[in-house]
Amino acid sequence: MTFMQQLRQRWDASGSLVCVGLDPEPAKFPRRFAGDADAVFGFCRDIVDATAEFACAFKPQIAHFAALGAEDALERLVAHIHSVHPGVPVILDAKRGDIGSTAQRYAAEAFDRYAADAVTANPYLGGDSLQPFLERADRGVVVLCRTSNPGGADLQDLAVQRDGDTGPARPLYQHVAETAAREWNGHGNVALVVGATWPEQLREVRAIVGDMPLLVPGVGAQGGDAEAVVRNARAADGTGLMVSSSRAILYASAGDDYAEAAARAARALRDTLDAARRD
Ligand SMILES: O=C(O)c1cc(=O)[nH]c(=O)n1[C@@H]1O[C@H](COP(=O)(O)O)[C@@H](O)[C@H]1O
C-alpha cells in the first residue's frame, strides 16, 4: 500500500487529523528515565503506544535522535510503530535537499534504513534534487512550502515572477505549491508543509493544490490556532490535514503520568480538530 493510500485509510479509521511529533529531549523526560541507557527509545515507545489511537501519523524528527547518537533508537521506534500499530504512517522529518547523487542517499536513508513511509524535503535545490524521493512512488514526499517559524517569511514570502509570466509577482511559497501540484506530483505522492502559525497562507495554498495533503506543524508550543487551520485548509471531504504537535503532547506532564497526559493532549487536539471540521 502506498503512503497516500495508508494516510487516507488512517484518516477514515481514526477519525483523527492529529500527527504526533516525536522530538525526544532527555532533559524533559520524567525522572524515572534518569540513568536509563535506552531512555530515548523507552520514552518515545510509551508515547507512541499511548497516543496511537488518536494519531493519523507519527513524525519522528531525525535531529532529535541523531544529536544524541540515538539513530538505533529511531530505527527500533519506526519498526515498533510498523509492527504494533500497523496502518499508522511514519513521516521522517529530515528536511533533506541536495544534488541528485546525494539526495539519492538521503532517500535510501529515510526509506530503506529507517523504513519511513514519507520524508520531509526541502525544495530549495529544485526539481532534480527531489527526484530521488519522488520516484519512490509508494512513499510520500512532504515538501516544505511555508514553514511555521517567524523567519519563514524572509525568503518564502518574496514576491517573484517566473520568466514569461505575465501576471503579477507572487510569493515564492505559492510558486512552490503550484510547482508541487503541477510538476512534482506525477506519482501522486507529494504533500506540503505549511505552518499552523500562518492561517492566511494555509488558505492560499489549499486554493492552489486542491486536495493534496498538508502537514501542518505549529499548533501547541508554537501557538498556532488549530481551529483556524481546519477552517482555512481542510480538503473538500474534511480531511487533507496532518496537524502536527510535538512538545505539547510529549511533555504534557513531567510526572509518572506522562503517557496518560500525552494521550489526553492528543485526544483533546483530535476533538478540537474534529469539531472544527464539522462546523
Ligand atoms: O517539517 C516539519 O515538521 C516542521 C516544519 C515547520 O515549518 N515547522 C516545524 O515546527 N516543523 C517541525 O515540527 C515540530 C514542531 O514541534 P512543536 O512546536 O513542539 O510542536 C518540530 O519537530 C519542527 O522541526
UniProtKB/TrEMBL annotation:
InterPro entries on file: Aldolase_TIM (IPR013785), OMPdecase_AS (IPR018089), OMPdecase_type-2 (IPR011995), OMPdeCOase_dom (IPR001754), RibuloseP-bd_barrel (IPR011060)
Cross-referenced Pfam families: OMPdecase
Catalytic-site annotation from UniProt: K95 (proton donor)
EC annotation from Swiss-Prot or TrEMBL: 4.1.1.23
GO molecular-function term, one example from the UniProt record: orotidine-5'-phosphate decarboxylase activity
Keyword Transmembrane helix: no
Keywords from the UniProt entry: Decarboxylase, Lyase, Pyrimidine biosynthesis
The keyword Lyase appears for this protein: yes
SUPFAM superfamilies: Ribulose-phoshate binding barrel
Enzymatic reactions: orotidine 5'-phosphate + H(+) = UMP + CO2
Pathway given in the UniProt record: Pyrimidine metabolism; UMP biosynthesis via de novo pathway; UMP from orotate: step 2/2
Transmembrane segments: none
Domain Orotidine 5'-phosphate decarboxylase: 17-262
Family to which this protein belongs: Belongs to the OMP decarboxylase family. Type 2 subfamily.
NCBIfam families per the UniProt record, alphabetical: pyrF_sub2 (TIGR02127)
Record protein name field: Orotidine 5'-phosphate decarboxylase
UniProt organism field: Luteimonas padinae
